[in-house]
Amino acid sequence: MTKVNDLSRSLVSFEQNSSVTVVVEMSASSWLVAGQVPRLDRQPLKKLEPDPAALLRLVERWRDEAVKAGRTIKRVALAFGAGRDGFWLARWLRARDIEVHVIHSTSVAVSREHRRAKTDRLETAMLTRVFLGWLRGERGHCGMVVIPTLEEEDARRPSRERESLVVERTRIINRIKAILAWLGIRGFNPKLRKAVERLTRCGHRTVYRCHRTRLTNCGAIWLDSP
Q1: What is the pTM of this model?
Q2: Sheet containing 99-103: which strands, arranged edge to edge?
Q3: Cβ neighbours of residue 206 closer than 8 Å, sequence gap 6 or more
Q4: I need a surface site. Which of 2, 28, 34, 211 has the fewest CB within 10 A?
């Protein structure tokens, strides 16, 4: 599991008049990119295909616009929320001299009083607010996730895969137990090596034969036993 960095705020001084800040709200089909660009009256917002090269071109274009408007840009900082896309984009942008931060999604404070609307635009605006607060060194806005190297991620993969397999096994066992309980069979352990023989010995051969397909569909691999 990813861990929130101990630094809950930036320790680097933030000069907003000489910095371009960018946040990206990522989804499977598109990226919504919002920027804070010095000397621009508008706050640019652009929807892109999930393409890192297009994102880099957009960030460079906004930086060039600020320079043309008479600002000296000393810093470009970009952030996006941790999610299923992982850290490949952060590593890709860092390799191209872009300062990247990954926001831990559970560290962002949201209102729990009622159901809140969730759209890409609202999420992008919220990420912009918390990212600017973090850059200013203020606590309580959000926490950043440590961006691992590819080697570090590979080293964690076996334990993560094992965790996934354990969760999947537990889900399947619970489904089997639920089906057996529905058939009036309680206290049976589906993890036993000779589960079918034990069902038969307990007098449930007919029940087992009638519901073999149902049990197979939920993953009872021992049903292949003779």
Answers
A1: 0.68
A2: 45-48, 31-36, 19-26, 75-81, 99-103, 144-145
A3: none
A4: 28
Mention every residue, 6+ apart, whose C-beta is less than 8 A from residue 221. none
- Residue 153 to residue 223: CA distance in whole angstroms: 37
Secondary structure letter of residue 48 according to DSSP? E
| Six-digit token string for 74 | 């000393």
Indicate the burial class of 210 (C-beta count within 10 angstroms; 0-12, 13-18, 19 or more): exposed
Contact 45, 124 (CB under 8 A): yes
